[in-house]
Design a protein that fits this description.
Blueprint lengths: L1 E6 L5 E5 L4 H10 L7 E4 L5 H12 L3 E5 L4 E5 L7 E2 L1 H4 L9 H8 L1 E5 L12 H9 L3 E5 L2 E5 L8 E3 L5 H11 L5 E5 L5 H11 L4 E3 L5 E5 L8 E3 L4 H13 L3 E5 L7 H9 L3 E5 L2 E5 L8 E3 L11 H8 L4 E6 L9 H7 L3 E5 L2 E6 L7 E3 L3 H13 L3 E5 L2 H4 L5 H7 L3 E6 L2
Parallel strand pairs: 2-15, 3-14, 6-7, 10-11, 18-19, 22-23
Antiparallel strand pairs: 1-23, 1-24, 3-5, 4-5, 7-9, 8-9, 11-13, 12-13, 15-17, 16-17, 19-21, 20-21
Helix pairs in contact: 1-2, 1-7, 4-6, 5-6, 6-7, 8-10, 8-12, 10-12
The chain binds uridine-diphosphate-N-acetylglucosamine.
The site of uridine-diphosphate-N-acetylglucosamine has 22 residues, from helix 1, helix 5 and helix 6.
Length: 421
């Protein structure tokens, strides 16, 4: 298995290009199921989760062509040979549940393996199912699979979500674009990735308004054409590099992203003492003074994203005083804490709150990545630690960060990927 080796202590300096957002690319790729015509999607990040998504589309009978050098994917959706997303693929990527909406809309039937447990919590899909039921789908659980049928096709409906779930909003949106009549998703997620999905669907001829707000209105159309879309930048990747720059007392510019994608994260970085400047297409975080402690609470957009919590916790280990993180989105999302403690951090957990005492000197150690964003927090901490940090189980990292070690090397970091001996 591969590992990452980091020798900490080098100030990161320079510019890094931000890839397309994983969490936008996945639903957008699944949306291609909605059309029989060919789709072309650009600015696709090169990630393990993208490969899994293509395998799911292949399993459904779509033909996918990944032009790696161009970061582009062409999809021929003319033949839909199957309506089943198999366990072996859903097991490795829960977002496969996003085939439900498009398959029910195009074919009136969908089968997806139940995702099962996940490292960061139970992550049920009840909101997805109840929204699709409002449009006329009926679900049964059979042999570990969710089997959905819309006998008379989907009908436009009002779909109030109990919580602004990102995935449930995406499934409801992708189903509603081909449903008969008008739909309204209430208490919808407002994340930029929802806006990007709506833009991608609009390029297919979908009639959508209100995305980015809690009420999304959709008027169903009979047929959709092929998609032409370029995926929006990855705000989580961008925030990860900004944290990496500040923890090393350096200065990092993330290229290809507008500050509006990062507002809550930038507010926190400013409060910690980072100097933030931006252009239309870039954001820079520069270390000027010792960092201040800060309190954050994760919440749906525009609040502080749960996907950035672990990376900010690493940064807090080097801030003066006691910082607090309250995680309100997922249970069990502090698995990076014992690993950060191995590097010398002082962190206490009480329920869904973590108290981080800083600044404490970190020293390199062997640590284990437990999930995607936890892996990123270990890299950030390793960059500030004295000596060598070895991160194991980095396959988690490869699900969501494109060539992170190469991008960090470009900023001056001493980091390498090696085979574990
Ligand atoms: C997406 C992101 C993930 C991010 C999360 C929150 C993708 C591929 N993944 O995940 O990186 O951390 O949004 O911003 O885009 N819930 C239910 N029932 C449901 C659906 C959700 O109880 O049917 C709960 C979840 O358990 C969780 C909360 O709602 O506690 C938010 O989940 P949700 O917004 O749906 O996250 P995902 O779409 O799974």
């Amino acid at each position: 298995m591969e590992i990452l080796k980091i020798v900490g202590g080098t100030k990161l300096k320079g510019e890094v290009s931000i890839s397309g957002a994983k969490n936008a690319a996945l639903p957008i790729l699944f949306a291609s199921i909605l059309s029989e015509e060919p789709s072309i999607i650009k600015n696709i990040p090169l990630l393990a989760d993208i490969n899994t998504t293509l395998k799911v589309l292949d399993a459904l009978g779509l033909k996918t062509f990944f032009k790696l050098e161009d970061h582009a994917i062409e999809i021929d959706g003319s033949e839909l040979a199957s309506i089943e997303a198999p366990y072996e693929l859903v097991r490795t990527m829960r977002a496969s549940v996003l085939v439900l909406g498009p398959l029910l809309a195009r074919q009136g039937e969908a089968k997806v393996s139940l995702p099962g447990g996940c490292a960061i919590g139970a992550r049920p899909v009840d909101f997805h199912l109840s929204a699709l039921e409002k449009m006329g789908a009926e679900f049964k659980i059979e042999s570990g699979y969710i089997h959905g049928v819309a006998k008379n096709g989907l009908k436009g409906a009002v779909m109030p979500l109990p919580f602004p779930s990102v995935g449930a909003t995406e499934n409801a949106l992708m189903a509603a674009v081909l449903a008969e009549g008008v739909s309204e998703i209430q208490n919808a997620a407002c994340e930029p990735e929802i806006v990007d999905l709506a833009n991608a669907l609009r390029s297919m001829g979908a009639d959508i308004s209100g995305e980015g707000s809690p009420t999304i209105r959709i008027t169903g159309v009979k047929k959709l054409k092929g998609m032409r879309h370029s995926v929006a930048p990855d705000r989580v990747e961008a925030a990860t590099f900004l944290c990496a720059g500040l923890i090393t007392q350096g200065c990092v510019t993330v290229q290809g992203i507008n500050e509006s994608y990062l507002s809550s994260a930038l507010d926190v970085l400013k409060e910690m003492g980072g100097k933030i400047s931006s252009t239309e297409n870039s954001v820079t975080a520069e270390y000027l003074t010792p960092l201040h402690s800060v309190n954050i609470e994760t919440s749906p957009f525009p609040g502080f994203p749960t996907d950035m919590q672990a990376q900010f916790m690493a940064l807090m280990t080097q801030a003066n005083g006691s910082s607090q993180i309250k995680e309100t989105i997922f249970e069990n999302r502090f698995m990076h804490v014992p690993e950060l403690i191995r590097l010398g951090a002082r962190i206490k957990i009480h329920g869904n709150e973590a108290m981080v005492e800083g600044p404490l000197p970190l020293s390199g150690a062997i640590v284990m990545a437990t999930d995607l964003r936890a892996s990123a927090s270990l890299i950030i901490a390793g960059l500030a630690a004295k000596g060598e940090t070895v991160i194991r189980r980095i396959y988690h990292l490869d699900r969501g960060y494109e060539q992170i070690e190469k991008k960090l090397q470009g900023l001056g970091a001493q980091i390498s990927r090696e085979l574990e001996k």
